[in-house]
Amino acid sequence: MLDTAQLRTEGVEEVLSIADACLGGLRGRSTLLIGPEEQRQLYLPLLQAAGVKNIYQEDTPIHVSELIPYVQLLISAPGPAQDRPLLTAGLVARGCLGRRTPLLIFDLSPSTPSVEELAGLLPAVCLYTPEDLRHVLSKFI
């Protein structure tokens, strides 16, 4: 079984592979990374190598609703101290007003979900929770 530490480090390539397949490629797309810098840095070189057009970075989800209209992929990789969802369905919904393209969200929290599960029920949003990712990635390992 894939544990959370593996998901956060060794699983980076696999997570981006899933995103690539879901979005029909990452080249020319835009991504938002949310979390501490040490977590975001795991993704930067691979996203750049995949040809991602814009990579937005935020420590917290405060400005997420303003950035969501410009991205197709959102990766939430919070630190271990987080004890409740930081990215609420309301913030995601505000950012998705009028959205016509899918928004793929990966919640890579080590314990408590960092994205409110209701966000996954919003139109045009596809949310992968930590449990979803463990299930998908366990089939490859």
Question: What's a quick, concise take on this entry?
Answer:
By secondary structure, this protein is α/β, with parallel strands linked by helices. The protein is 34% helix and 16% strand. It has helices at 4-8, 12-23, 37-40, 44-49, 64-67, 89-96, 130-138; strands spanning 30-34, 54-58, 73-76, 103-107, 125-128.
How would you explain this protein's 3D organization?
The chain has 141 residues and is an alpha/beta fold. The protein has one domain (4-138): Rossmann fold (3-Layer(aba) Sandwich), CATH 3.40.50. The chain is built from seven helices and five strands, in the order ααβααβαβαββα. Strands 2-1-3-4-5 form a five-stranded parallel beta sheet. Helix 6 links the parallel strand 3 and strand 4 (103-107). It is globular and about 30 Å long. Mean pLDDT is 86; it is low at 1-9.
Number of strands: 5
Largest sheet: 5 strands, parallel
CATH architecture group name: 3-Layer(aba) Sandwich
**Strands ordered across the widest β-sheet:** 2-1-3-4-5
User: Percent range for helical residues?
Assistant: 25-40%
Terminus-to-terminus distance: 8 Å
**CATH fold call:** Rossmann fold
Order of helices and strands: HHEHHEHEHEEH
Shape: globular
CATH class category label: Alpha Beta
Low-confidence stretches: 1-9
**Would you identify the CATH H-level superfamily?**
NAD(P)-binding Rossmann-like Domain
| Rounded mean pLDDT score | 86
